[in-house]
Each structure stands twice: as C-alpha cells, then as structure tokens.
Amino acid sequence: MNLILGIVFIAYGVFRIYQHLNENLTPNTIRLIIAIAFIGSGGYSIYKYFKFKNLK
Questions:
Q1: What residues contact 6, with CB distance under 8 A and at least 6 apart?
Q2: 3-state secondary structure of 25
Q3: Which pTM was predicted?
Q4: N or C: where does the chain have the smaller number of CB atoms within 10 Å of the terminal CB?
Q5: CA-CA distance, 29 to 45, in Å (whole number)?
Q6: Cβ neighbour number for residue 54 with a 10 Å cutoff
Q7: What is the pLDDT of residues 9-39, one digit of tens each?
Q8: Which contiguous run of DSSP H or E holds residue 31?
Q9: In whole angstroms, what is the distance from residue 43 CA to residue 18 CA?
Q10: C-alpha angle 11/7/46, rounded to 5°?
Q11: 35-55 pLDDT, tens per residue?
C-alpha cells in the first residue's frame, strides 16, 4: 500500500508543478506548497515500503 500511495502522491505533485511551470494554472502559492508536500510524502511512503521490505 505504501508503494502505490507513494507513486500516486509523487505523480500528483509533479503534475501540479508541471502545470504551474508550463501553463501557470496554479496562480496561488498554497497549491505549489501542497504539491511539494505531496512529493515529500510520496517519497517518504516509498522509503518506508522499501525499508520494511528489507527487514522481512
């Protein structure tokens, strides 16, 4: 579950940043901050997945 959740969060965050940089559809800063938080949360979820997988 952590792997799928991490991939989805990272994909959503990258998509939002892509929109912000290329089409400027995110004019306010809070959406950009949320996108960066989603990427960080997704990265942490993937880290937890591989960390617990190596412990087993």
A1: 41, 42, 43, 44, 45, 46, 49
A2: coil
A3: 0.78
A4: C
A5: 24
A6: 7
A7: 999 999 888 888 887 665 677 888 888 999 9
A8: helix 29-55
A9: 18
A10: 135
A11: 899 999 999 999 988 888 777
Supply the pLDDT for residue 1: 80
How many CB atoms are located within 10 Å of the residue 6 CB? 21
**Cβ–Cβ under 8 Å, residues 47 and 5:** no
State how far the alpha carbon of 24 is from the alpha carbons of 4, 21, 29, 52, in Å.
28, 6, 11, 39
Q: Look up residue 11 and give its amino acid.
A: A
Backbone angles phi, psi at 25, to 5 degrees: -85, -5
